[in-house]
């Protein structure tokens, strides 16, 4: 069994996934637009360049996403948690993903982690970055 986060964006899915691929060292393996759907699907022309389905592979993890032109709702009630091996990785990822977003808890040492942070990125996606202390 696998679990794949499926994210919805408000018209900026392609930009977000290109950004995530750069920051996280991933590869976009699928990027289909609404314009590529069969004509009988009846997709409105004004959403043609928006993303109907995308997949981003980071290591052995897959993220999926699309734009939600008719029913977009901001993300809530979850965070994507990234576990990293070094404080330097935590700092690099935190700096990049939190830039232009909203920080709930800045990157800091906690009783369980060398580094931990909670924030929402500029695309409205909530994240946590965690670098465990040795032996945990």
Number of strands: 8
Fraction of residues in helix: 10-25%
The tally of structural domains comes to 2
The Cα radius of gyration reads 16 Å
CATH topology of the largest domain: 2,3-Dihydroxybiphenyl 1,2-Dioxygenase, domain 1
Question: Would you kindly provide a written description of the structure presented here, covering whatever features stand out?
Answer:
With 136 residues, this protein is an alpha/beta fold. It has two domains: 6-67, 2,3-Dihydroxybiphenyl 1,2-Dioxygenase, domain 1, CATH 3.10.180; 80-132, Signal recognition particle alu RNA binding heterodimer, srp9/1 (2-Layer Sandwich), CATH 3.30.720.110. It is 18% helix and 38% strand. The protein has two helices and eight strands; from the N terminus they run βαββββαβββ. The protein has helices at residues 13-24, 87-98; strands spanning 6-9, 27-33, 51-58, 61-67, 80-83, 102-108, 113-120, 126-132. The strands form two sheets. Strands 1-4-3-2 form a four-stranded mixed β-sheet, covered by helices on one side. Strands 5-8-7-6 form a four-stranded mixed β-sheet, covered by helices on one side. β6 (102-108) and β7 (113-120) form a beta hairpin. It is elongated, with a radius of gyration of 16 Å.
Secondary structure: elements and pairs:
Elements (H helix, E strand, L loop, with lengths): L5 E4 L3 H12 L2 E7 L17 E8 L2 E7 L12 E4 L3 H12 L3 E7 L4 E8 L5 E7 L4
List keywords for this structure.
single chain; 136 residues; alpha/beta; 2,3-Dihydroxybiphenyl 1,2-Dioxygenase, domain 1; Signal recognition particle alu RNA binding heterodimer, srp9/1; 2 domains; four-stranded mixed β-sheet; 2 helices; 8 strands; PhnB protein; Glyas_Bleomycin-R_OHBP_Dase; PhnB-like
């Amino acid at each position: 069994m696998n679990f794949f986060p499926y994210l919805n964006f408000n018209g900026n899915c392609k930009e977000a996934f290109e950004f995530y691929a750069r920051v996280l060292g991933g590869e976009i393996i699928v990027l289909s637009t609404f314009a590529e759907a069969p004509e009988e699907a009846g997709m409105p022309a004004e959403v043609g360049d928006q993303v109907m389905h995308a997949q981003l592979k980071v290591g052995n993890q897959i993220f999926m996403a699309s734009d939600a032109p008719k029913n977009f709702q901001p993300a809530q009630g979850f965070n994507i948690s990234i576990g990293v091996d070094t404080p330097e990785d935590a700092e690099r990822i935190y700096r990049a993903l939190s830039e232009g977003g909203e920080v709930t808890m800045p990157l800091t040492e906690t009783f369980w982690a060398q580094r931990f942070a909670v924030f929402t990125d500029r695309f409205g996606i909530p994240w946590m970055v965690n670098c465990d202390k040795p032996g945990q």
